[in-house]
Write a structure and sequence with these properties.
Strand content: under 5%
Number of strands: 0
Order of helices and strands: HHHHHHH
Shape: globular
Structural class: mainly alpha
Length: 136
């Protein structure tokens, strides 16, 4: 995670828009994505970071999260990105364990969309490169 993205999280926390627990959880998730070889910067993951922190905060505050009118479109877009939706489901499971609140399906789908964009904006790893060669 780059300094600008860390600053985003810090500002959310210092202005009390998110709890320390949410900020720590999101920072740990971003660090894990970076450890997987994804490019986690303000440019590539800023929106993802804000969205996840806001969604978790709303859930912890007991605010209802309604289904989005675009849920079907997002799900259709994710059909081509099974790895992103698997990552999103894993994040949701860890959030439930760490923070005690499950992310609803529509939030998992939006998180998956953010993760698909993050993967597309990251250079291919050796594993992905060898997969592409074997598919050619």
């Amino acid at each position: 995670m780059d300094d600008q993205l860390a600053l985003r999280i810090q500002l959310f926390r210092e202005t009390r828009q998110v709890s320390p627990e949410v900020a720590l959880f999101v920072a740990a998730e971003l660090d894990a994505l970076a450890a997987e070889g994804l490019t986690v910067t303000e440019d590539t993951a800023g929106v993802l970071t804000s969205h996840l922190m806001a969604a978790l905060t709303r859930l912890l505050d007991g605010a209802p999260i309604e289904a989005f009118r675009t849920d079907e479109q997002v799900a259709a877009e994710l059909a081509g990105h099974p790895e992103a939706i698997a990552r999103a489901r894993a994040v949701a499971l860890r959030a439930e364990r760490a923070l005690g609140t499950p992310l609803p399906g529509s939030e998992v789908n939006f998180l998956g969309l953010h993760l698909a964009v993050l993967a597309e904006n990251s250079p291919p790893t050796r594993h992905h490169t060898s997969e592409r060669r074997s598919q050619s």
